[in-house]
Write a structure and sequence with these properties.
By secondary structure, this protein is mainly alpha-helical. It contains ten helices and two strands; from the N terminus they run αααββααααααα. It is 65% helix and 3% strand.
Length: 266
C-alpha cells in the first residue's frame, strides 16, 4: 500500500530552507501516531514533489533526515522508494553512546547506571511479569546452560555466551511492564555491548578471559531470580539483583580498567 501524505501545494509552512525539516516533521508525526504503518510505501517522489510544491533535492533531504532516524528505508529498484519502518531504539543508543564517549564517561559510570536502572526493572518484573515473560527468561537460561555444557572455551562460543547474557538483561527490561524504563535500560545495554565489543577486539592477552569459574554462579543467580519473580517477591528480587550486579561488575573490572573512558567506535 501507499501512504496518504497530508500537506499540499500552496501550504505556507513549506518554504525553503526549512522545507525539508518541515516535511520530515509532518511525516515523522504521521509515522509515530501510526497513521502510516510500518511496511507501507510513501507516495512516489514525483507525486510528492507536485503535491508539496518543493524540489526533488528538498524532498530527498527530508527522506535523509527520516532515514537517519530509522523511520524509513529508501528501497532501490523499479518498485523502490521510501518505506516506513518502526522506530529503532539502536539509533538513540548510538547517539547516547556518542554523547557519553565525548563526555569521557567511564566503564564504572555505565556499570553504576545499569545497576540503578536494572534493579528498578527487576522490582517491577517481580510485580508484573507475565507467564510468557517467565518462559522467555527460563529459555534464555536453558540455552546458556546448554552452551556451557558444550564448552565455551573457544572465542566464538564465548562471544555467544556474552550475547546471551546481554539478551538476559534485555528480557528483564522488556518484561518489567514499563516502556520508559525498558527504553532506558535497552539503550544502556546497547552502549555497554558496543564498549564490550571494542574491548574484545583490542584484547591483546589471549588468556585474559581464561578464568570462567564464575559462570556456574551466574546460572544459579539467574535461576534464583526467576524463582523470586515467579513468587512475586519484589523486595527480595530487588535486593538480590543489586548484589548480583555488583558481583558481575567485579568480574568485568578484573579485565578492564573501570576508570578508563569508554570507547564505542573502535
Amino acid at each position: 500500500m501507499t501512504a496518504q501524505f497530508r500537506g499540499g501545494v500552496g501550504d505556507p509552512t513549506v518554504r525553503a530552507p526549512k522545507a525539508a525539516a518541515q516535511i520530515a516533521d509532518r511525516l515523522r508525526a504521521q509515522i509515530v501516531r501510526g497513521e502510516i504503518p510500518p511496511g507501507e510505501m510513501l507516495p512516489s517522489e514525483k507525486r510528492m514533489v507536485v503535491d508539496l510544491g518543493v524540489s526533488r533535492p528538498t524532498l530527498r533531504e527530508a527522506f535523509r533526515i527520516l532515514e537517519s532516524e530509522g523511520l524509513i528505508t529508501v528501497l532501490t529498484g523499479a518498485r523502490g522508494g521510501p518505506q516506513v519502518r518502526l522506530p529503532d531504539l539502536s539509533v538513540a543508543s548510538r547517539h547516547i553512546g556518542l554523547y557519553l564517549q565525548t563526555q569521557g564517561a567511564t566503564l564504572q559510570d555505565l556499570m553504576e547506571a545499569r545497576e540503578e536502572f536494572e534493579v528498578c526493572c527487576v522490582r517491577l518484573l517481580a510485580l508484573r511479569c507475565t507467564r510468557e515473560g517467565l518462559e522467555e527468561l527460563k529459555a534464555c537460561v536453558e540455552e546458556q546452560r546448554r552452551l556451557w555444557e558444550a564448552g565455551i572455551e573457544s572465542g566464538a562460543n564465548f562471544a555467544r555466551w556474552v550475547a546471551l547474557t546481554g539478551e538476559w538483561h534485555d528480557l528483564i527490561a522488556r518484561h518489567c511492564g514499563n516502556k520508559t524504563l525498558e527504553a532506558q535500560a535497552k539503550s544502556l545495554s546497547d552502549v555497554l555491548a558496543a564498549h564490550r565489543s571494542v574491548s574484545l577486539q583490542r584484547k591483546k592477552d589471549p588468556d585474559a578471559y581464561a578464568d570462567m569459574s564464575y559462570i556456574p554462579g551466574v546460572f544459579a543467580d539467574y535461576e534464583r531470580l526467576i524463582d523470586m519473580v515467579a513468587a512475586r517477591d519484589a523486595a527480595g528480587a530487588e535486593k538480590f539483583w543489586r548484589a548480583h550486579l555488583r558481583r558481575a561488575a567485579e568480574v568485568v573490572y578484573r579485565n578492564r580498567d573501570p576508570h578508563s573512558p569508554i570507547s564505542l567506535f573502535g
